[in-house]
């Protein structure tokens, strides 16, 4: 083992290679805009799939009745019901439940996963309290949020292209996920119907728009990441002139697959090579919650292997992939004590009882900061890429008036430093005048109610 200087060198290199000065951000934002255009021009024309959502109408506030939502998108599976009362009464009641997905189901068979979901839904639907009323003779309708890349074929069907975010379930890719769910519901004798299949970003956009007409973009920053926005049908060459009645539609960008101009370190490249999808989801791997902790782990491990980050003791546990999690980085960065107590105890746990001194703790914080700063700033550049595309095509009607970007996801919600870096990057890119019109805010309802609202908008009874 060599000296403290190699720890310093590793840190300096990390900071240098992950730096995102304004010109880099500008390049990323411009490349995002260009990739969006290329994806809208031809199918497969870009890293960005620019998936048609078949959502051509957003909630107006007039929706009424009982609707269900079901959300599969990552570490958890959520079921929800909502009783909508129209413009005056709005959301009369909601109830929801969350079930964590057993790890083995994330790499099991399609039937096992969908049976588990249908079973959770059946259990939840069994107990419908007094505030919820389904008109006689109606089937319960579901908005199904499924946040993996799906090629939609209509509002209520879509083919799974590939699993992401650590899922590798066999037998679903290439199939209609609504059919998979319907078959599982039949096996449970559960009489419900999916009336809208929505990506979680699309659900978040719908949920936020229900309360605020200026919402034009939705971004999810959780385990994974994605963004969608309101597009004019006449700006989608791939549609060959097919217009929706409203003249608009929501485009699911699948921006996690973006890769153009992202500054990558050796740690990112190694993590990517070891991942289940090497070379894919590069933007996601630099900005989303699943990966930030893992990148930091790799840096700290190298500092322990090649330097003396933890003195003479080798932190064996740090060799385990994903043993340091993004919430750990977040907790470390909230520590404002003089001796960095909390940082010390998180490192102690992460290394299985290797003590750290104050200077190692400071280094660990610098590592977290470099990774989180890049993540937040790149996310901000991505948002500007979308806004810029919309503004160019609408002759200034995005930057020139109040425009809301609805944010959702655990990373955005819980990580103040990340949020701050993201917001400041947007301001740097747009300048102070335009940024005053751009409101980036946490979406109140999350994607859950949004999906139920889209089930209402697309109800077979309307
Ligand atoms: P999903 O798994 O569906 O994306 P969420 O939107 O709730 O669910 O996001 C969960 C992710 O958010 C976690 O995987 C983690 O990366 C991140 N996260 C959760 N809590 C925190 C936290 N306290 N600090 C930082 N990141 C967090």
TrEMBL record:
One of its GO terms (cellular component) is cytosol. Pfam families: Hexokinase_1 (PF00349), Hexokinase_2 (PF03727). Pathway: Carbohydrate metabolism; hexose metabolism; Carbohydrate degradation; glycolysis; D-glyceraldehyde 3-phosphate and glycerone phosphate from D-glucose: step 1/4. Residues 217-456 form the Hexokinase C-terminal domain. GO terms for biological process: glucose metabolic process; glycolytic process; intracellular glucose homeostasis. One of its GO terms (molecular function) is glucokinase activity. The keyword Plastid does not apply. It is an enzyme of class 2 (transferase). Its EC number is 2.7.1.-. Residues 13-210 form the Hexokinase N-terminal domain. Keywords: ATP-binding, Glycolysis, Kinase, Nucleotide-binding, Transferase. Belongs to the hexokinase family. This is Phosphotransferase.
